[in-house]
Automatic annotation (TrEMBL):
One term of GO molecular function: phosphogluconate dehydrogenase (decarboxylating) activity
Gene: gndA
Reaction catalysis annotation: 6-phospho-D-gluconate + NADP(+) = D-ribulose 5-phosphate + CO2 + NADPH
Family stated for the protein in its record: Belongs to the 6-phosphogluconate dehydrogenase family.
Protein name as catalogued: 6-phosphogluconate dehydrogenase, decarboxylating
Higher taxonomy: Bacteria, Pseudomonadati, Pseudomonadota, Gammaproteobacteria, Oceanospirillales
Length: 502
């Protein structure tokens, strides 16, 4: 019973997280239904262990009973299997294998938050079910992910030292401290993990992270598409431009990898590698869940939703091919200075990014009420500064904004962001105009501008909309000069159109 933590599921994420824990001195008991995966993690640990005489920190277990018998109590078991039914199958098998009510089972998959809420209640007589979402892909899991824990506070106290050890770290300026060398983990700096709240809070925050990730990625793709279509730039040229942008306010992991991707060539054909990749985007659901959750709570999150739809539209490859032969764009072409276009697109990307993050944080603010959570928005921004896919220096600005005012209604209202939108919105407007004139689809840019203009409008045509609703369905309306909450109905078909209080 000398292992600190058990693992069920030693696929890429499970294996790398187990190796990360071992690097930090924790002893891991690992189990997987596939014996090859167990062997693989043991072989990797042996290969990577700097001192071959040192004792192995990961042991392989042939079944769950064996894994449990190797763990110190209360036992902590990390489950890293595909989200959905497999998590429940593992939970039930752990019960059969003798897990106890004080033990903690941690779901580290991309589970839907509603499942986490349900599971915590459903398994409470058998063990403590705890959620921890992991971001950062396989490299993050191996050398420092962003960890988003949610569950009961006592379990968190038990998990906290381990989670803080393996999480990504940032320095005093909020910049990630990176060491991708096995056996030499980063031990200093602020860890990218913080307790986010009970039951499904961690998985919810991760889902919103992914919704923002979808928007971030789509916006970068639209910037690339515009540069290519308007200026005729080759991918390599755009990659270099992105690398340059990455030195400024747009500094982020996603811009960095995009710059790298665009400068690669296909070994077989010599063509830019990006041109050899089919333009049909996959998705596993987290962006869609974010959009659905926002819609259900009535939160305007159009940029995130448009990013989900853009992926859906991209998959209509045969239909698009067919339509391309029928539907034409009547476009305007004119001389545009490349420098101006580049500047406009760079500004557009930053403005739209601000709007997308504003939407993401609005979704979480609404979820607080819906699920009775209390989020620390500064902590959320801080734990996204390192390790995760949307890591960016920009997140420090968000943390500062919420540190300054926890009740900030919308990120756009923070001085820095309001000022940036004032200074750079011309670029977003120009990019949208150019896209419209030249027929380049940029739904996320359009949506960002519409959100900004809608949010800053004191008057919207929703008065007319209310009149329409009242006209055809007697849905009533409030008057600008009436008591708040007092409803009125106009008898639109009657002589003199009489209005009555309802
Ligand atoms: C992360 C990523 C990770 C994964 C997404 C991608 O934070 O590490 O978000 O969770 O890459 O699930 O999802 P799609 O397949 O839907 O793009």
């Amino acid at each position: 019973q000398n292992c600190n933590i058990g693992f069920v599921g030693l696929g890429v994420m499970g294996k790398n997280l187990a190796l990360n824990l071992a690097d930090h001195g924790y002893r891991v008991a690992g189990f997987d239904l596939d014996a090859n995966k167990i062997q693989d993690v043991l072989d990797t640990e042996e290969r990577e262990r700097p001192d071959t005489k040192k004792e192995a920190r990961i042991i392989g277990c042939s079944n769950m009973e064996n894994m449990l018998s190797n763990l110190a109590k209360p036992r902590v078991v990390v489950v890293l299997v595909p989200a959905g039914q497999p998590v429940d199958i593992v939970c039930n098998n752990l019960i059969k294998a003798g897990i106890e009510s004080d033990d903690i089972v941690v779901d580290c998959g991309n589970s839907q938050w509603t499942d986490t809420i349900r599971r915590e209640a459903e398994y409470k007589d058998y063990f403590k079910f705890f959620g921890t979402a992991v971001s950062g892909g396989e490299v993050g899991a191996r050398f420092g992910p962003s960890l988003m824990p949610g569950g009961d506070a006592d379990s968190w106290k038990h998990l906290q030292p381990m989670w803080e050890a393996v999480a990504a770290k940032v320095d005093e300026n909020g910049k990630p401290i990176i060491s991708n060398t096995p056996g030499k983990p980063v031990t200093e700096g602020e860890p990218c993990t913080a307790y986010l709240g009970p039951n499904g809070a961690g998985h919810y925050v991760k889902m919103v992270h992914n919704g923002i990730e979808y928007a971030d990625m789509q916006l970068i793709c639209e910037a690339y598409h515009l540069l290519r279509s308007l200026l005729g730039y080759e991918p390599e040229e755009i990659g270099k431009l992105f690398a340059q942008w990455n030195q400024g306010e747009l500094d982020s992991y996603l811009v960095e990898i995009t710059a790298d991707i665009l400068q690669q060539y296909d070994a077989a054909t010599g063509a830019p590698l990006v041109d050899m990749i089919l333009d049909s985007a996959g998705q596993k659901g987290t962006g869609r869940w974010t959009s659905i959750s926002a819609t259900q709570m009535g939160v305007p999150a159009g940029i995130i939703s448009e990013s989900v739809y853009a992926r859906a539209l991209s998959t209509l490859t045969t239909e698009r091919e067919h339509a391309a032969g029928i539907l034409t764009a009547e476009v305007e072409s004119g001389e545009i200075a490349a420098e101006d276009v580049e500047k406009a697109i760079e500004e557009a990307l930053y403005c739209a990014k601000i709007c997308a993050y504003a939407q993401g944080f609005q979704i979480m603010r609404a979820a607080e009420k819906e699920y009775d959570w209390t989020f620390n928005f500064s902590d959320i921004a801080k734990i996204w500064r390192g390790g995760c896919i949307i890591r960016a220096s920009f997140l420090q600005r968000i943390a500062d904004a919420f540190d300054g005012n926890r009740e900030l209604e919308n990120l756009l209202l923070n001085d820095y962001f309001a000022d940036t939108m004032a200074k750079k919105q011309a670029g977003l407007r120009k990019a949208v105009v150019l896209a419209a004139q030249s027929g380049v689809p940029t739904p996320a840019f359009f949506s960002a501008l519409a959100y900004f203009d809608g949010y800053r409008s004191e008057v919207l045509p929703a008065n007319l909309l209310q009149a329409q609703r009242d006209y055809f369905g007697a849905h009533t309306y409030e008057r600008v000069d009436g008591e708040p909450g007092q409803k009125y109905h106009t008898f639109w078909q009657e002589e003199g159109r009489p209005e009555r209080k309802v």
